[in-house]
Amino acid sequence: MNFSFQTIKFPVENILLKEKGSKFIGFAFPVNNVKELKNALEKIREEHPKATHHCYAFRLGMNGENYRANDDGEPSGSAGLPIYNQLLANNLTNILLIVVRYYGGTKLGVSGLVKTYKESAKLTLDEAEIITKELESDLEIEFDFHQQNIIFTLLNKFDGKIQDFFTDEKCKIIAKIKTSQKENISEQLSEMQNISFKFI
Predict the structure, then answer these.
(1) Exposed, middle or buried: residue 85 (CB in 10 Å: 0-12, 13-18, 19+)?
(2) pLDDT above 70 for 1
(3) Is 134 within 8 Å of 3 (Cβ atoms)?
(4) What are phi and psi of 78, to 5 degrees?
(5) 9, 134, 137, 155: which has the fewest Cβ within 10 Å?
(6) Are strands 136-144 and 170-178 parallel, antiparallel or unpaired?
(7) Which domains does the chain possess?
(8) Section 163-176 average pLDDT
(9) Cα separation of 132 and 174, whole Å?
(10) Helix 182-190 crosses helix 148-157 at what angle (to 10 degrees)?
């Protein structure tokens, strides 16, 4: 089972490539879900309303199982696919790569488009900082107030990141832990008294 994936650390914007009068501008965004993806696309459309095409490709999910390549009016397969292939070549997921084109009056032909979109996508990714991210799971633990030190120590041991902490008659913590540690932390929690936990 694979518990990590590669993505980019920060957005990369405005990487310019010129070809026969046309301008190609590359953008890459790290995205975790469809909502973030739509927001990034919307942002670029608003910034470049006069562009002839907004072509893009994205991959989401551990193995990039949720993906799409969009030619946005360019000949089929001439834009979205070359962009998508750059994501595959770099083994990246949870990423959106957009190439905005301003048409400059000279047609490039399908092979010219494929080459230029590929080049633009590659230049954009060359500027990105590629990182390996661990897959994380959300863990909810309920326990008695006097047990909080034990719970904090345990979470600390597993590099757990506390997202929420509620104190009532029972205390409740929601934390993010590395999915690769799920079994280990479950074992230790199971051995404790008066504690209930679940992955959410």
Answers:
(1) middle
(2) no
(3) yes
(4) -90, -10
(5) 9
(6) antiparallel
(7) 4-133 (3.30.230.30), 135-199 (3.30.70.240)
(8) 93
(9) 24
(10) 160
Q: Which pLDDT score is estimated for 33?
A: 93
Percent of the chain whose pLDDT exceeds 70 = 100
Residue closest to 195 by CA, chosen among 136, 154, 157, 137: 154
The total number of residues written for the chain in this structure: 200
Compute the average pLDDT of residues 143-153. Answer: 94
**DSSP code of residue 62:** T
Which amino acid is residue 141, in one-letter code? I
Determine the pLDDT at residue 3: 85
- Name the DSSP letter for residue 10: S
Six-digit token pair at 25?
């501008």
**Burial grade of 36 (CB within 10 A; 0-12, 13-18, 19 or more):** middle
